[in-house]
Write a structure and sequence with these properties.
Largest sheet: 4 strands, parallel
CATH topology of the largest domain: Rossmann fold
CATH class of the largest domain: Alpha Beta
Distance between the termini: 30 Å
Strand content: 5-15%
Number of helices: 12
Mean pLDDT: 96
Structural class: alpha/beta
Order of helices and strands: EHEHEHHEHHEHEHEHHEHH
Shape: globular
Number of domains: 2
Radius of gyration: 19 Å
């Protein structure tokens, strides 16, 4: 199993723990991630019009030039943008022509490039049975609330339900954790507004975490750097916004996979979180 790897801007900076844990876990599973050289920003939430396709499509062309037909994009926003571009050039010859006209000489996008979030690689390419076979330290006693956010499952596709997603839950059960269900697991955290309207982000993310905690969640897991910023970095602001103490660790799903597979804690970036997971990890025997 060999994939082109698109880290995006966040995994090189604020979300390094997501990057290192993804690389560590995938290597442990025998999955090769090949970095896309000279990758560019996907446009995040800011690119509009034709730029919203041209920017991510360049990364598709780079993957094709490497001889690979599938890109793994850990950030939910990058995953959405690259996948949208992939579908656009596949469905419309004029869109593909426009993209190729704006690529530098020698770089062209001729084939169809798949884009997968690492969660979907784990679930549908690797398989939960294989994951279970690698679990040496089950997450017994950990009550985990999965948070999907608004980009991972939208627009609706073949992978999961946009309103009632199950993917993270299925994975956490395979790792031996107790899964906590709560009604806001697919609602927007306001991450895109964190700088311009921090008060909105604080309230939205606070409501999500309060809902998870009220339903028994002791740890939240996710797969999006922007959502992680909202729920972890902004958690103290969220507490003030909703008037409730939270103290809720926010971990990337790859970090929990690494723990369950017995990987060294120092290879998972667990020390980088604002809200420390140490108490919950000790309780679970880690």
């Amino acid at each position: 199993m060999r994939y082109a790897y698109y880290p995006g801007c966040s995994l090189q900076t604020t979300a390094k723990e997501y990057d290192i844990s993804t690389r560590a876990v995938f290597a442990h599973m025998g999955i090769e991630l090949v970095d896309i050289e000279d990758w560019n920003c996907c446009g995040a939430v800011h690119a509009k019009g034709k730029a919203a396709i041209r920017l991510p499509a360049r990364n598709l062309a780079l993957a094709e030039a490497m001889g690979l037909d599938t890109i793994v994009a850990p950030c939910s926003g990058c995953y959405r943008n690259l996948r949208r571009a992939s579908k656009a050039v596949t469905a419309d010859k004029e869109v593909r022509k426009d993209v190729n006209e704006h690529l530098k000489k020698g770089l062209q996008l001729n084939g169809d490039i798949r884009v997968l979030h690492p969660l979907y690689v784990v679930l549908y390419e690797y398989g939960l049975d294989k994951v279970k076979s690698l679990v040496t330290h089950p997450l017994k006693g950990m009550k985990i609330a999965s948070y999907y956010g608004c980009m991972l499952t939208r627009p609706k596709d073949e992978f999961d339900s946009p309103e009632n997603p199950k993917g993270f839950d299925e994975l956490m059960r395979a790792l031996g954790a107790e899964v906590v269900d709560y009604p806001l697991k697919a609602k927007c955290c306001g991450g895109a507004l964190a700088i311009s309207h921090a008060d909105v982000t604080a309230k939205l993310s606070g409501n999500i975490m309060y809902s998870a905690k009220e339903h028994g969640g002791e740890v939240v897991t996710l797969g999006c750097p922007m959502c992680h910023t909202s729920l972890d970095l902004y958690q103290s602001k969220a507490e003030k916004a909703i008037g409730h103490e939270l103290d809720l660790p926010i971990l990337y799903f790859t970090q929990l996979m690494g723990l369950a597979m017995g990987l060294p804690k120092e290879s998972l970036g667990l020390e980088r979180h604002v809200v420390s997971p140490e108490k919950q990890l000790i309780q679970a025997g880690f």
